[in-house]
Amino acid sequence: MKERFFRFMRGRYGVDALGRFLIYCGLILALINMLFHNIVIAIISVVIWCFAYFRMFSRDIYRRSNENNRYLSAKASVTGGIRNFWHRIRQKLSNGTINNAQNGSGSYSSRCNSFSGNCYEVQYKVFKCPKCKQKLRVPRGKGKIRIICRRCTHEFIRRT
Ligand SMILES: [Zn+2]
């Protein structure tokens, strides 16, 4: 029996990442449909499973592996996009809390490098322009520097 199965599978494509994904999708849809009893969902899950089995037993290995590669690159771009999205949200949240905590001048701030994905501490001091109250962020530890307001171009000197 086992031998017959192996003989049957010889030269056929078998299961790959896309195949597993399709089987899971069909299974999840079938489980969801236990609640909804929707004929459209049922048909979609059967079609997905049929496609998964068709790929498994297919002899056109070249075309099947092309499909798998397209699936893998699509998956990579989706997961990369989601990771970037969360990274941006986290960055925004942490900036927001730091900005809320700072009242007036002399608070710290940190920044993430979005190119390398690494977060490192860059320390800033935040000053308010004495004229227009615009918040200005200046790198820390530069000694006494002249700050030019980017809104009203008013100049003032502060120690950072
Ligand atoms: Zn100003």
What does the model show?
With 160 residues, the protein is of the alpha+beta class. Among the domains are: 59 residues, no CATH class; 41 residues, no CATH class. The protein has four helices and six strands; from the N terminus they run H-H-H-H-E-E-E-E-E-E. The strands form three sheets. A two-stranded antiparallel sheet has the order 1-2. A hairpin with a 6-residue loop joins strand 3 and strand 4. Helix 2 runs antiparallel to helix 3. The termini are far apart. 7% of the residues are buried. About 8% of the residues have low confidence. Bound molecules: zinc ion (ZN). Zinc ion binds next to loops.
Topology:
Blueprint: H1 2-9, H2 17-36, H3 39-56, H4 61-101, E1 111-112, E2 119-120, E3 124-128, E4 135-139, E5 144-148, E6 155-159
Antiparallel strand pairs: 1-2, 3-4, 5-6
The structure holds zinc ion.
Residues 129, 131-132, 134, 149, 151-152, 154 line the site of zinc ion.
